[in-house]
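Subject: design request, 101 residues
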């Protein structure tokens, strides 16, 4: 093996720093019971623990993730206007709907 030159060492050092910035590791202290619950729920949902903690921290910081957002689906119905219905009079419409007309 040949000794590395100063330029190669610097390039390797910058490469390692770049990798560290992309994936930081940390230690979290929590109760064993809480950890078991988190680990069980993550396994049930097929989610890695890393993703569970990242999601929790993002929610804590206020940047809610839009996962499985509810989509409103319009449903149309065919119909006709009944005699005596006035859409511009809320009270008479409610009376008609309640059978008080």
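Subject: RE: design request

Done. Sequence follows.
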């Amino acid at each position: 093996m040949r000794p590395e030159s100063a330029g190669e060492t610097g390039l390797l050092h910058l490469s390692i720093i770049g990798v560290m910035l992309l994936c930081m590791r940390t230690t979290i202290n929590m109760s064993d019971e809480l950890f078991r619950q988190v680990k069980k729920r993550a396994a049930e949902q097929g989610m890695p623990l890393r993703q569970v903690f990242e999601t929790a921290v993002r929610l804590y910081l206020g940047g809610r993730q839009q996962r499985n957002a509810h989509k409103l689906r319009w449903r149309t119905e065919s119909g006709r206007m009944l005699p005596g219905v006035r859409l511009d009079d809320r009270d008479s419409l409610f009376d008609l709907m309640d059978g008080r007309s």
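The two ends are 98 Å apart (CA to CA).
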